[in-house]
Design a protein that fits this description.
alpha/beta
Amino acid sequence: MDATPGHLTEREGRFLSLMAACAPVRGTMVEIGSYKGKSTVGLAFVARHYGLGHVVTVDPHTSPSITDPNEPGESSYEAFCDSLERAGVVGDVEAHRAYSRDLARGWDRAIRLLWIDGDHTYAGAKEDLDLFRAHLVPGAIVAMHDVLANFEGPIRVFARDILGSDDFGPAGLCGSIGWAQYRPGQGGAPRFRRSRRWLARRVAMLIPFVREGQRQRGLVRIGYNVWRALVPHHPRPAEAWVEAVRLGPDT
């Protein structure tokens, strides 16, 4: 992953790999938004090592995009293919050059990890969650990138549609990755609901500071950074995360 271009930090890449390896259910790993393949490469190595099947990726690779504003007019598709080739993971990836809504029309596979890093508008991020939510296996992990970044979509969807839903149990953040475990029928338990609501209140304080397509400046930027520091987003030990998402008769 370090040798592949992209926007994941090292700790985010490690955490994504942890989720891919340790999601406690069987199913397909789906990546929405591939860009130049940084997260794809990480997921593919995990999938190969643990015999988890192909990683399914979907991205139209169109440009310009609000998530890659520095490369107007250039598609990321060739760079994506080059990344997979250099990493030697072409055979571990089922890549779709399409919009997620197109892939969703015929989708019929159970999902164990849904990694959302595509359209960062609210409508786009919400659509990605809504399109594939019905295919999540109980115990699956949903993760979104750029929740704690200057994009309105991921943070609103994470705060309202994930943390605000009793379909999800354990939840948290690592860097700018927001994650939650799909626990329909269990997410309404007091211990899950209290922790999700506490986190949702912290995250929601940042929403007024982000606007689609607008760069933060001056006092807005300062205010955002102050509130962001109050949102817990440091990595927890791998063993503690695995224990938090472990499934058993009493969960």
